[in-house]
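Interim report to the steering committee. The following record documents the input for Noranthrone monooxygenase (173 residues).
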Amino acid sequence: MCTLQKFVPAAAIIGLSSASFLTAYITSFTVLAIPVVETGASKDNAKFAAKQWQKAFDLGKSFAPPFAITCAACFGFLAVQTRGIVGRYPVSPSVLYATAAVLAPSIVPFTIAVMGPTTLDPLVAKADGSPNAPGDQETLDLIKKWSGQNAVRAGLIGSAAVMSAFAILAQVA
């Protein structure tokens, strides 16, 4: 048995657990935080709503990346360690882990390329009181739009968790 093989069970547990946790964490912003922000939001206090959104976003931004890196590292390691293993499904565990390893960190480019110009930048401008910030109604609409985009991010990391779960199950006799 290769020396690194003894780390496979731990990597599988850590990878699946961290991906599952991160999915729930990201989803909580869409399901819990944004409804709270929207509860008291009106055209009169859109800047305050943008500040509340920014606080929630900054919390997530500081906490989520280490989990995404942990998932990706575990899944990448597992993809290499399970090469040549034929599982119960038409797709090998190695391919499932490799897919998970790509999906997990894909939340970062999605955030930068898709969310950045469409919702993040305008909402930050509104929270900071920038003169080129969106109007009040547009700000409230952007918060709703961000919530949907955030759900996509949760789906990306959730898909990585599902891929790793299938990879684990594929190896069970």
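The chain is about 80% helix and 0% strand. The committee is asked to note this result when reviewing the revised timeline.
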